[in-house]
Specification:
single chain, alpha+beta, Glutamine Phosphoribosylpyrophosphate, subunit 1, domain 1, Rossmann fold, 6-stranded antiparallel β-sheet, 33% helix, binds iron/sulfur cluster
């Protein structure tokens, strides 16, 4: 059920690894959670200790071999799932081979993290019984000193417990929850623990969120139910802004900032910009139309703020995979044609303010404008709740390289021409920051962090000097990818 609630984070593949007295049990395959898991194969997954993953590929070829959880037998028996992206994948693969005689079996950065942790733990000495939290933290030093990039990780340590850790800036989300538990397999404390990318997975399964992991923090729950935590290596908190804009489920709270609230605020922030542009250029709009699903909340708030009717006149065919993660330009164009149908009777002769969460390559946006025009709209204005995306992401969101981003090197009027829109209105960076800041509401403390916005302003909070090798790897993985995936960490 946890994977199902996080399906929006990864639709390429899914896997579950469990552990009990008979050893490890694993089921994984390409496809959606409901197609990978059946009643029969779920019955082969006994145990009260498990890790699970829904995969969205950014690195790796999209083969079954790259599907998580990953498993390594020595030391202890470690199973790992990872959300994020290592930037120095090529360097680490080389170092693991040269210095530690560890040859990788896949193209996934998760295997690198797993081998770094295994190497760190294997240098401890001692026997299988003697593993303290201090030892685990020493082993993690190897990960934190070598891995550069974003990582939220959960590890199953056979016969010892469950370990979770988050990268030093907390770029990708990771939340911890617990619930009362009794009966077979229950911990002596009478509690069960769960760590997940989003709080929606905790809540859906009856876990109360305890808190988000801190940047650079390790959390270990041993088999007595005792909880150990320590910050291994932390820097300024820089969670990804795109979680609130698009990626995360609206029911989730990330670093205590509600996603739903942030999207409401994104809509409100946009209203002043729309008013200004409309006034300057003499436009009026008859209706605000969301591009389903992720822009709906912001579009409602924008319509309320502007006092313009909100109309859901683009109807989504829910059975088509999100266009963003399809692996070729042709497939993207085709999918957009199939995915949305306009309600002609409502659109004909109208001036339509179309709201989407973001404009990446522009392929989808152009098709949307065309679709609404073909349905008879008199004018089409395109509003993006995200500011212009001008730089690639190296931390787990599969934005393409710079040259493919429509906002890179083009001014607003060029983008309007490319999209065929009467106006294109972007959120400003200040508006995005203000939206995330105001999202918890007037009675709750405002977040004290500045989110990562590197794809907007080029200010990368994690070193990307190794990024050229990463970008080349991503290109070659795309060229050789099979199935629906384009590359390993995000689910969307
Ligand atoms: S670069 Fe953009 S998409 Fe990537 S982590 Fe930073 S904010 Fe998120």
């Amino acid at each position: 059920m946890g994977l199902t609630t996080l399906q929006h984070r990864g639709q390429d593949a899914a896997g579950i690894l469990t552990y009990d007295k008979d050893g490890f049990h694993r089921v994984k395959n390409l496809g959606l959670v409901e197609s990978v898991f059946t009643k029969d194969n779920m019955a082969t997954l006994p145990g009260s200790l498990a890790v699970a993953h829904a995969r969205y590929s950014t690195v790796g070829r999209g083969d079954v071999v790259d599907v998580q959880p990953f498993l390594i037998s020595y030391p202890f028996g470690l199973g790992m799932v990872h959300n994020g992206n290592l930037v120095n994948t090529a360097q680490m693969a080389d170092e693991l081979a040269r210095k530690h005689r560890r040859r990788l079996l896949t193209h996934s950065d998760t295997e690198i993290l797993l081998n770094l942790l295994a190497e760190g733990l294997s240098q401890l000495g001692g026997d299988n019984e003697s593993l303290s939290f201090d030892d685990i933290c020493s082993g993690l030093e190897m990960v934190y000193s070598r891995a550069s990039g974003s990582f939220s990780v959960v590890v199953l340590l056979a016969d010892h417990g469950l370990l979770a850790f988050r990268d030093p800036v907390g770029n990708r989300p990771l939340a911890w929850g617990k619930r009362p538990q009794s009966g077979e397999g229950a911990l002596p404390t009478g509690e069960a623990h769960m760590v997940a990318s989003e709080s929606v997975a905790l809540a859906f399964n009856g876990y109360d969120k305890v808190r988000d992991l801190q940047p650079g923090e390790a959390l270990f729950i041993d088999l007595q139910g005792k909880v150990h935590t320590r910050v291994i290596k932390a820097r300024e908190r820089r969670p990804c802004m795109f979680e609130w804009v698009y990626f995360a489920s609206p029911e989730s709270e990330i670093d205590d900032v509600p996603v739903y609230g942030a999207r409401i605020q994104l809509g409100r922030q946009l209203a002043s910009q729309v008013r200004r542009v409309f006034k300057e250029r003499g436009f009026v709009a008859d209706m605000v139309v969301p591009v389903p699903e992720s822009s709906r909340i912001a579009a409602i708030a924008l319509a309320e703020e502007l006092g313009i009717p909100y109309r859901e006149t683009l109807i989504k065919n829910r059975y088509i995979k999100r266009t963003f993660i399809l692996d070729s330009q042709d497939k993207r164009k085709h999918a957009v044609d199939l995915k949305l149908s306009p309600v002609r009777s409502e659109i004909v002769g109208k001036k339509v303010l179309l709201v989407d969460d973001s404009i990446v390559r522009g392929t989808t946006s152009r098709k949307l404008v065309e679709l609404v025009r073909r349905a008879g709209a008199e004018q089409v204005f395109f509003v993006s709740t995200c500011p212009p995306i001008k730089h690639p992401c190296y931390y787990g969101i599969d934005f393409p390289n710079e040259e493919e981003l429509i906002a890179n090197g083009r001014d607003n009027s060029q983008i309007e021409r490319e999209l065929g829109a009467d106006a294109v209105i972007y959120q400003e960076i200040a508006g995005l920051k203000a939206a995330i800041h105001a999202a918890p509401g007037p009675d709750a403390p405002a977040p004290r962090f500045t989110p990562c916005m590197a794809c907007l302003d080029g200010q990368y909070p994690i070193d990307v000097s190794a990024a050229s090798a990463f970008a080349a790897l991503r290109r070659s993985d795309r060229a050789s990818s099979k199935g629906g995936g384009v590359g390993g960490g995000r689910a969307r």
